[in-house]
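Hi P.,

Sorry for the delay on this. The queue was packed all week, but I finally got your sequence through. Input first:
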Amino acid sequence: MQRGKLLALLVALVLLVLMPTTAFAATHENVDTWEKLQAAFADTDADVTIILTGDITALSDLEAKLGQTFVINGQAYTLKDVSLYGAGSVEINAALSNENNDDALKAGGQVQVTVNGDVTSDYDGISANGEAGVTVNGNITVEEDGIEAQESSNVTVNGNIAGESDGVRAFDESTVTVTGDVTGKEDQGIEAGDKANVTVTGNVSAGDGGVEAEDQSTVKVDGNVTGGVVASNDSKVHVTGDVAGASGDPDEVDMTDPTDYSDGSTGVYAEGSAQVTVDGNVTGGDAFGTYSYAGNGVEARNESNVTVGGNVTGGNVTADPSVEAAKSSPASSAAPSADAEEYYYNSIAGDGVVMDATANVTVGGDVTGGATNGDHGQAGEGVVILSLNKNYVSGDEQEPDNMQEDTKPGKLVVYGTVSGGNALAENGQDGAGIYWDNYYDGYDGPIGGAPDDFHLPTEIPENIPVGLVVAVIGDIFENYYYSYGFTFEQYDSAFSAFEKDVLLPLINAATGGQADNLEDALNAADSLDAEAAAALNLQLVNAYNDHLDNVAAKQIGDNMVMPEVTVWQVKSGGEQAPLFDSSFTDEMTDLLGADTNYIVRVADCENGQLIADKATAKAGETVTLIPKANDGYVLDQVLVNGVALEAVDGVYSFIMPEGGGIEVSATFVAEAPAEAPTNTAGSPKTGDGFQAALLLGLMAVSAAAILVVRRKVQAK
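Then the structure:
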């Protein structure tokens, strides 16, 4: 009886253990039609195995309900136009392709899909939305977009993605991870927005843009990016390899046509508050043709942050130097200046770095402008700094007074050399090392004239009333200040001071009067004869021109937002000045250059160290060097750029030259060993016969004395 109960209990336990695999599992074999696949997904079992025996084109959605798992086996067969949704999971051990729908695979809801095979499509590859999860253990090769992820979906591809249009498109807080390469042949390699997160462990390349990130999205590429990086609106992009802008196509250019071109694109473009980090090098795309524009290396706008670990180089232009650049016709509206005969439709190489004054750019290596061999070609500048006016900040619609409070200058740091590019053709123009360009985007656009354009001629026609000259000075004074973005209050204050301190004293001196206002002084000037009036007019014009040169230019400098500039060295590409300003006088260029900080590069020293009292110095500043030898060593020499430096009153120092480029070092040698003592009193020297004989004699006398003493003692 007891044995029977035990046997029944044992059978019940076995049935209980086997129940999940029997009552909740099903297998559908010989599935070769859409109807059979539908029937398999209509199965209510928790675990469903589907064995394909033919290719199947899905004609509508398939649902994997919560708690269900579907395994589709059939490596030799293909599923076409699969659309899955629900909250269950599906494992597909077969290839996927597209035939009728837009995508090879659509995944919606919270369904989790794993594809152990390749995905091909004559349209899009994978479309995921609604928190769906898709993993592809294979490659994706499509005619349009490789992946489109939305609505917090999660897509992982353990393979390569090649799209004829875009490689990856990710939006709405979705996440995409690719362990291979991503290619978007015609458009973007990666397009990310709306807080999406994309990680690629391979390379990214595209015909239009390698990576485009916006709206707080994050992109990480553990490889190289070809086609450039564009980042905006608080997005973050990190590339551990190199970044190169897209180059033009030389096969599409007629090199004999002076107006033909194929342009290159920028390597890294950042705007808003975007952050871009490139561990390797950044290069602008090359261009081809006499009228072509190459891409800049880095362009940083607004308050963006760009960090490059290696070198930054502007794109080059390849043209036929024997083909003359076309000139603009005198009636051409494209001519940027009144002297249309001097304007050429020429090639322009890419700048190394172009940055707003509020942006931050750090480069660990060198920055170089691109080269051009086109006729009248313009080589790229090393760095172009767009100096904003404090009152009119780029893209800001606030009132001027508020903008002035919110304006924060950025920083440019280059640990290597900044140099302009070379113009290889005879009529070309080399690039400057650092080129300042003053503008105030958001008001009336870039400044069109330099201070020289506001100067008045000193050849004044006869019989011109003094009042008319003063009126002209007042009008041009006002135009000058407004053209450079000063507020009305700033202009009014400046002109009132000029009127009181300059115009009024000159007129009173000429008339012998003591007027306390300009109107009364001008009334008195009406009585001057022609010769005296002409002399006064010349004085007034010279005083106004002098004000522009010595006062107003400095006021403009004070009114600008300038980034803090720190570099190791600045060089031009050739005949151009290393430091150049687009709109100011030479004095203004010198003023801006005087604010440049040059890095003092200290080489590693053996057996000691060399300390500079300044990490950076401006041109003309003195840097003191302090050598410290390790124990057992002494200083040999201190070197500046390989040349021994003489100490003055025991102090080693040098003056930072224009352009910087200083590397200091020191050599240390072992201390000489201490000499042995020449002699010690009372101590014999080895080989000294006299000293040895004397010692032996003393020993004999001592012994004899001892014997005598002993005998006397014994005799008693």
